[in-house]
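Q: Give me a backbone?
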Amino acid sequence: MRKRAVILAASVALCSVPAHAQWSGALKADGAWNLGRNNSENIDFDLKYSGSKFYAGAGLTLDHSFLPSVQTTSILDVKKEQSEYYKGECKTINPRNYKAGVNIDFGYFFNPSDVLSATVSYGFSGKDEHSSLETERYNGLSREAIQGTQIDTVSAGSHNITGKINYSHKFENRPDARLEISVSETTGMNADAKRRITSGAFYSKPRNYATFSCLNDFDTRLSASYDDVFRFSGSLLKLKAGLDYISNQDLDGYSAETMVNGHWRDSTDYRQSYFYNSHSTEPYVNLTCSVGRFDFSVKERVQIYWHAMLDKLDERKSREDIVGLFDKFDFQNLLAASVTWRIDDRNRLALNYGRAISRPDYKKLCPTLTIGNSEGEYFIGNSELKPEVTDKINLGYTYTKGIFVTSLDLNYRDRRNTAEKVIDLEKSKDITDPVVKTVYTWINNKRQDSFGARLDLKMNGRDVKAEIWAGFNYDIYGNDKTVSKEDFNYELGTSVNVFLNETTKLSSSLVYISAKQSAYNLKGEDVVAGIRFSKTLIKGLDLYAELKDIVDKDRYEETWNADFNYIKVSSTSQMRRAALLGINYTF
């Protein structure tokens, strides 16, 4: 295989400026050789001019990557009497990604206490993907294999324009107090098109058709915060209070066309439009207090959330025919607290608690039938999905002696209402399309309890910095009444940074991850290694070379149906091995 080297170069010319002005900037560029059939190139450039009353800056980023992968999938019948749903697949994916962006920053100093800044940015990301899917199914209990081939070409593009204004004020009588107000608006358009060709004995008639979808989204954010510090005898209290408001509106249009007698024809069965709105108001108060050898922290955030979705099944219908799918309101209390005991100069003990929330997107909530991914699978959303809530408790101990630091962390995580993708056998049987045999939906009556521990040893020497760690996780999956399966995985890792001299640095890392899946005793093992060499030629100019992910890296995934008797197992091998050359220049 022919190796390709990427040579990147840039030069910056500075003009003479007034004595009070100052220029600053940074350039970062790297390129990867084609090892393991992948390559990537990246350039980031920033330039800033600072004057006595204002500053102005501009930035540019360009990125390209090609990261192929192979995915092997088996759908297995645990109870054996539904053997006609057995399916094996091997998919080769060749994606090429593009990214470009530009931003302009401006700030004006009214006085030392009041600053007004603004940012305008434009970003584009695109993806061209070619994939080939080889499918094999068994014809019921006869076990006669029937095969088919599916070729997909996907083109996706996203354009986003963002504007942000920020105002900051410092109080003369309160040197530690600060008020900030910011508002931003993001407008985006995302479009993707797919073309699929199917053939082989599995498909009764070869099919050749394309799909197109377009999403326009508008994201508005308003934030206001107040920071202050209060000092008492022997103690310190930090206060931050504020309000965040987030509004999102998505307009999603989906359509499909079918090739008939050599001509494209609209397929209204798949033509849909969605209007999704969500609004979140989040007041919060953060308090941090130090008393003696104890540090206390309390973060109280309240999330008031409302979302609604409308469905216009046929774009040619009038607005009066729009159907309301759901309209919901909920309230979440997101509390976080911690206490740290500095026992002495060497020993420290910390206890942390936090709650997080993750909400399903509108595609998981939409209860209408839509065509899914490039494999022709269907998805039915569930408008009754609840947000996923996670409570986490962590107990950590740290011992420091000279350049050596030892830490031990014990953690427990309780995750509820997980939106898990499952296979619905009953709805799969109702599909009349011979190509599609599977319907997915989402349910969240599942929960996960996770117990973990991590031991970390560090050495922070002047010339050598080293770290070695070991950790494990024990996960229990199920619902409030039963346990469905258990997983145990562990991780071992080490990293070393050697400063050969003031300008030369050598770094290396090696991580082993074991992730065992209980069903059929499947086991995924990842070994990730890397080595990096960097050299400072002159002040601000660094060159580096890196070997990355030079061993094996696989990912396993399971999907069960609601009764836990039907399982889809996928293994993805990403070809990410790469050798990088780069430059980093700051002036």
Remarks:
- The mean pLDDT is 79.
- The first strand starts at residue 22 and ends at 32.
